[in-house]
Amino acid sequence: MAGQPLLEIHDLSKRFAQRAGREPPPWVIQDLSFTVGEGEFLTIIGPSGSGKTTLLNMIAQIDSASGGSVRFQSQIAPIADPKALNPGLSCQIGYVTQEDNLLPWRTTLRNVLFPLEVQGRLNDETRAHAQMLIRAVGLAGFEDHYPHELSGGMRKRASLIRTLVYDPPVILMDEPFGALDAQTRAQLQEDLLRLWDLGRKTIVFVTHDIAEAIALGDRTLVLTRAPARIAGEHKITIPRPRDIRGIMTHSEFGPLYQRIRAELQ
Amino acid sequence: MTSQDTALELTQPSRLQRQYYAVIAGRIGLALLLLAAWKTGADRAGPVYVADPFQVIERIFVDTQSGVLLRHIYVTLRLSAMGFAIGCFFGVALPFLLRRMPRLTNAVEPYIMASVGVPKYALVPLFILWFGIDDAPKLWLVGLLVFYPIFIAVFAGIRNVDRRLINMARIVGASETKISREVIWNSLLPFFFAALKIALPRAVSAAIIGEFLVGNEGLGYMIEYSRQNFDTTGVFAGIVVATALVLVINAMLVEVDRRFNAWRPTERHMEL
Q1: Is residue A42 scored above 60 in pLDDT?
Q2: B268 assigned to some structural domain
Q3: Residues of A in contact with B168 (CB under 8 A)
Q4: CA distances (Å), B5 to each of A239, B8, B26, in order?
Q5: How far is A31 from chain B (nearest CA, A)?
Q6: Which residues contact B208 (CB under 8 A, 6 or more apart)?
Q7: In the sheet where A29-37 sits, what is the strand order?
Q8: Which residue of A has its CA nearest to B174?
């Protein structure tokens, strides 16, 4: 499934800056290497505090690395120098964060249009695309609502399509559905898979939920506690389109779940 | 006001209306009571110390008809507006410039904060010495008094901007200019409006005090001139007009605030 690696993480390490008079801080991530193929849906699963968010922040270049490199296509990003960071790698890496980070003074529609607006790509065609996405995730009728007038699930949907709307080749997702109830969560997972099927973006999806990692991914990486290393790697061959709600009954699901749980111990 | 409104909405509409009228009646009653107290005080103390309220109203009416009062109001408002524009411009621009230079900010911050403590009115004699007796010393006074609350609020507002929103904007490709204009500016608008509620009345007060000291026009001049001529009614008329001006300006500000900050979940502003 994975073709040419689109994204290559090599020996990536991170420790936070030392504070005066304290011992050197421990490594959050140490010598982490993996690749992501074009069009691949990679899930990364790790216990909380294993540096998953830090990892994505470094790939998205909003945080600098203490060592190692990130290569996208043929460009190597100089991510060790905080001043040379290029957040989002010139709009090639989208990032759906744990919090929705919607701009509270913008309505749903204007939040979704925000990336197009700042990139100077707002025209009839992109506008129509945004409207299509809004309808696709069931936000039609809420275009003129402010974020505080939306439910948690709706805000998540808005933040998801805000990234999809400008079509970055790679999308990072940091437990985007973590804070939602089980029903909304399953609904959003279905929405995500449906949207992904339309475009087949490259996705790196971080979660602490084993079932979610299996249900969504083509492949899953299991991380250890900090300093994060790779404890296991599994191809998930459950055929698509997948039935999220019924996935636990698939014959591959049970054994895989047990193996990943064992690796997480 | 807000919590009261919410509580009222839960009760019957007729009761809500009754309570509303009761509040209005209470306000009118209070106004009449204050007027009566003023009148009694004036009668007891004599017109040299406390002007008769009805004579004050009459004076305002007469001076308005002759056009003298309107001229004074115009001069004071013009001075306040110009001084406000200058102070507001620097109060907003400086924190935005300092944002790009964190080291410079750390170096100058204690000096800026210390200069807050300088009594600005005490500087007027120096301003007169340096800038003459035209509008310039008064503009400096108004400008400085407006600058500080706005500078402090905008400075604090910029520091309070949610980093995650800035990161989001960077990732989707927003330029630094766009981030300043969109994310930072909108995040600090509530701070800015809170500062305006202090700065706008201050601008008028500072203009009036400036006029006490320099010049021969404006509400401050009118009050001071009346005082020198033992015309207590004129002093009171000036104060009443100045107060009315500030109230009108505040009412306009509340309206602008409401429109600009319609996205905010709750009405957090204090209505004056």
Answers
A1: yes
A2: no
A3: 95, 97, 101
A4: 57, 5, 17
A5: 25
A6: B76, B218, B219, B220, B223, B242
A7: A29-37, A5-14, A67-72, A75-77
A8: A118
* Residue among A44, A35, A9 nearest A217 (CA): A44
How many folded domains does chain B comprise?
2
Residue B14 lies in a domain: yes
Place of tokens 């945080």: A63
Same domain, B38 and B82: no
B265, part of any domain: no
* Contact: A101, B173; criterion CB under 8 Å: no
- The fold adopted by the segment(s) A1-16+25-87+206-265 is Rossmann fold (3.40.50)
Cis peptide before A227 (omega within 30 of 0): yes
Q: Does B171 touch chain A (CB under 8 A)?
A: yes
C-alpha distance from A100 to closest chain B C-alpha (Å): 9
pLDDT at residue B130 greater than cutoff 60: yes
For residues B171-198, average pLDDT:
93
For residues A118, A122, A128, A130, the Cα torsion angle rounded to the nearest 10 degrees is 0
Question: Does residue B130 share a domain with residue B236?
Answer: yes
Surface-to-core class of residue B108, CB atoms within 10 Å of its CB (0-12 exposed, 13-18 middle, 19+ buried): middle
Pairing between β-strand A5-14 and β-strand A67-72 as defined by DSSP bridges: antiparallel
Q: How far apart are CA B52 and CA B60, in angstroms?
A: 12
A151 interface with B at CB cutoff 8 Å: no
Q: Read off the CATH number of the domain in which B196 is found.
A: 1.10.3720.10
Residue A250 Cα, gap to closest chain B Cα (Å)? 38
Sign of CA dihedral A133, A136, A141, A145: negative
| Low-confidence winner among A48-57, B54-63, B79-88 (lowest mean pLDDT) | A48-57
| Residue B166, C-beta contacts closer than 8 angstroms, at least 6 positions apart | B179, B183, B184
Looking at residue B19, its pLDDT comes to 86
Q: What is the 3-state secondary structure (H, E, C) of A139-176?
A: CCCCCCCCHHHCCHHHHHHHHHHHHHCCCCCEEEEECC
Total residue length of chain B:
272
Domain that holds residue B3: 1-45
Chain A stretch 161-180, residues whose beta carbon is closer than 8 A to a beta carbon of chain B? 162-163, 166
- B180 in the same domain as B83: yes
ipTM entry: 0.91
Do B112 and B222 belong together in one domain?
yes
Query: Any idea which residue has 């991170």 for tokens?
Result: A14
